[in-house]
Design the sequence.
């Protein structure tokens, strides 16, 4: 019995150590008031942990850069103060997000929140932010059901991302302007043949928002695109074989996928490898992450993705230098490439700096007002009009989006993206892959 | 018509594949419950460990991942034995609440340990047979899945022979049928517990290896959902019944896939649990379960 007690104590120590070691990675605030505390809402554990780590590391990089230059000048204090980041792990769940945000606001007493990824998770903790009125720059939560909701006060929430309508519109315009003509040209289809599109979407506000956006754009512009299948799947799914078999039976010309990174990789692999569905899969921007290119391997060759920040395809122009610098700094610090969510969070920390300096105060209402009237030059992501500002209605920033096509890179053994749309940004022309089979004529 | 049969056969094949993973997981779970009457919520973490051990051995050795079953199963058996000795034996018979909290603690320990060692990024691996397709009538099937189904059948036959033909297997069956009676007949039930737990963990490890080889992604937190399915299967098939776990696993695999095909992927869990409820209403002990003494 004594030996068993010793074993129990040993086990308890191990458990305590592991729990503590997994949850204490944030920079703890000193609590002396001489700092700007930014709460970073990131999925450090759970299904979206890859993206969460990207968010946190990019925020860290921005904070370090700002602190290296003296911090954020707060006029009310008459001096510059350093940035302190506090990590809020939403555990990739609604409940985890509520706990994390509550703690960041009530215990860590953050001045501003940044981050947020899944629309479902963000929508669950918005009410807490509304109640405590903390400025929150959200770089995820792309569903319009998150940013256009009117059941709570969202006036302290600012959305630094395209919403599902924006990305849905860009993606469908690419399909209409580029893919459909390419298929007509290659396979000799008649000009009035509609492109047969299957939509496989995550059964979440994010997925449903994208599906609605796709339908709305097709209807509003009277496009020759026919949706022949709508297949929802549960968040976190990794087995798409039956859903893809069902889609294959309907002979699509293309699949529009609304997924997270950990869902897109198996879906793409299973489509071609297991089900023999040799069709194009158009993915959404949140998947433009180095882990996608590494994970999808040869099955990514020829596939397409709507994007606003690509680690391997930097658009030429005024944002190119800043992007390359960010990627180099990130690689130097963490040994790898940042993804789109990292870039948006990095920018969000700088937006916070700009807003606080404009407000001259850490007063939350003043920071909110500064964000509402903010107009700062674009950084890495290409913004409409070249400036980061938030729309007066739903406080959303507006992006110039683009589409990349992947091509195998023999040196790295991974596919790499090239911008193929729109014309003013493209690196090369879109090509119909050799392995591609269209739907029935 | 041929096309429809072909598609339905393909869906049935995916159901069979899913069922194989579930069968291995649920058989181990049921074996442990049958002998020790404990509920181990951390059983999905053994599957997760199986994926990582396979991945690790694959990276360092470059061996065919199916051969790595020879490594992952024994390692998981050892892990299972250690867990039984350290965690479950001391609390055996002290109440279900202790078992629940011990297994919840184990979930955190295993998840965090794996995240510390291998990070919590999603990972996947590629089978050397990934591009090989076999024509079977109207079906064109990837070789990997045929191997997975064959390997699962071989493991189940081996388990059957072990339980029926060896002294240790008879001891396990005796302890499962009547623990006190087995003790009175000279069976060392503590040794049987340890072995049973090890075998159960080994079967989950095998499921993990096959999960990874099939190209499914995995990360340290992926074990929870399969574990919930595993529990649903053993309740459906009957607590403690190995044939029940096999039939239940196949049933859930088929139902999930045909539901995804007909109603959509977001319905598959709901319909599986509706099936579970219907079976329990009609037969409260599950398909192959026996009433308590």
Sequence:
């Amino acid at each position: 019995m004594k030996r068993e007690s010793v074993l129990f104590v040993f086990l308890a120590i191990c458990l305590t150590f592991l729990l503590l070691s997994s949850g204490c990675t944030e920079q703890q605030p000193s609590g002396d008031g001489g700092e700007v505390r930014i709460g970073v809402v990131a999925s450090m554990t759970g299904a979206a942990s890859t993206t969460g780590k990207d968010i946190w590391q990019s925020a860290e990089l921005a904070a370090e850069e700002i602190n290296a230059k003296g911090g954020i000048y707060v006029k009310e204090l008459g001096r510059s103060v350093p940035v302190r980041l506090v990590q809020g792990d939403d555990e990739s769940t609604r409940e985890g997000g509520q706990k994390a945000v509550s703690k960041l606001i009530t215990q860590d007493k953050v001045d501003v929140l940044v981050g947020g990824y899944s629309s479902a998770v963000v929508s669950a903790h918005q009410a807490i932010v509304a109640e405590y009125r903390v400025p929150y720059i959200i770089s995820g939560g792309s569903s319009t059901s998150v940013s256009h909701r009117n059941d709570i006060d969202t006036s302290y929430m600012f959305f630094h991302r395209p919403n599902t309508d924006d990305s849905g519109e860009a993606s469908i315009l690419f399909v209409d302007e580029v893919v459909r003509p390419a298929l007509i040209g290659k396979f000799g289809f008649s000009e009035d043949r509609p492109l047969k599109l299957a939509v496989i979407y995550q059964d979440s506000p994010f997925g449903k928002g994208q599906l609605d956006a796709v339908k709305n754009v097709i209807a509003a512009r009277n496009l020759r695109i026919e949706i022949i299948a709508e297949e929802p799947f549960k968040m976190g799914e990794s087995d798409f074989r039956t859903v893809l078999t069902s889609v294959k039976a309907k002979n699509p010309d293309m699949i529009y996928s609304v997924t997270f990174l950990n869902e897109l990789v198996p879906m793409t692999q299973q489509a071609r490898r297991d089900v023999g569905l040799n069709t194009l899969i158009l993915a959404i921007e949140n998947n433009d992450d180095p882990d996608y290119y590494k994970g999808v391997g040869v099955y990514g060759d020829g596939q397409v993705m709507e994007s606003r920040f690509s680690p391997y395809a930097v658009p030429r122009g005024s944002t190119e230098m800043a992007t390359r610098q960010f990627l180099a700094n990130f690689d130097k610090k963490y040994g790898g490439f940042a993804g789109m969510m990292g870039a948006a969070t990095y920018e969000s920390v700088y937006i916070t700096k700009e807003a606080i300096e404009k407000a001259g105060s850490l007063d939350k209402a003043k920071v909110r007002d500064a964000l509402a009237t903010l107009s700062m030059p674009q950084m890495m992501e290409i913004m409409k009009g070249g400036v980061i500002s938030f729309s007066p209605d739903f406080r959303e920033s507006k992006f110039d989006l683009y589409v990349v096509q992947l091509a195998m890179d023999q040196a790295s053994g991974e596919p790499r993206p090239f911008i193929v749309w729109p014309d003013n940004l493209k690196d090369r022309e879109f090509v119909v892959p050799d392995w591609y089979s269209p739907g029935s004529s | 018509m041929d096309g429809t049969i072909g598609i339905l056969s393909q869906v049935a094949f995916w159901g069979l594949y899913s069922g194989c993973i579930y069968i291995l997981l649920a058989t181990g779970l049921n074996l442990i419950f049958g002998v020790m009457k404990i509920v181990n919520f951390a059983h999905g973490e053994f599957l997760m460990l199986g994926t990582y051990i396979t991945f690790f051995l694959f990276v360092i050795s470059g061996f065919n991942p199916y051969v790595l079953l020879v490594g992952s199963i024994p390692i998981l058996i050892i892990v299972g034995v250690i867990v039984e000795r350290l965690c479950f034996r001391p609390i055996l018979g002290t109440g279900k609440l202790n078992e629940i909290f011990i297994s919840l603690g184990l979930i955190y320990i295993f998840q965090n340990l794996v995240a510390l060692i291998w990070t919590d990024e999603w990972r996947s691996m590629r089978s050397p047979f990934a591009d090989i397709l076999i024509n079977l009538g109207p079906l064109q099937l990837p070789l990997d899945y045929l191997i997975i189904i064959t390997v699962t059948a071989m493991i189940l036959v081996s388990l059957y022979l072990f339980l029926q033909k060896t002294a240790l297997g008879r001891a396990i069956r005796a302890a499962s049928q009547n623990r006190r009676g087995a003790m009175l007949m000279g069976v060392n039930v503590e040794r049987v517990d340890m072995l049973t737990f090890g075998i159960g963990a080994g079967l989950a490890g095998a499921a993990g290896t096959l999960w990874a080889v099939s190209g499914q992604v995995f990360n340290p937190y992926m074990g929870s959902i399969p574990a919930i399915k595993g529990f649903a299967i053993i309740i459906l098939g009957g607590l403690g019944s190995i044939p029940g776990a096999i039939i239940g696993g196949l049933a859930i695999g088929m139902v999930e896939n045909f539901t995804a095909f007909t109603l959509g992927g977001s319905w598959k869990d709901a319909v599986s649990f509706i099936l579970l409820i219907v079976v329990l209403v009609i037969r409260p002990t599950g398909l192959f379960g026996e009433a308590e003494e």
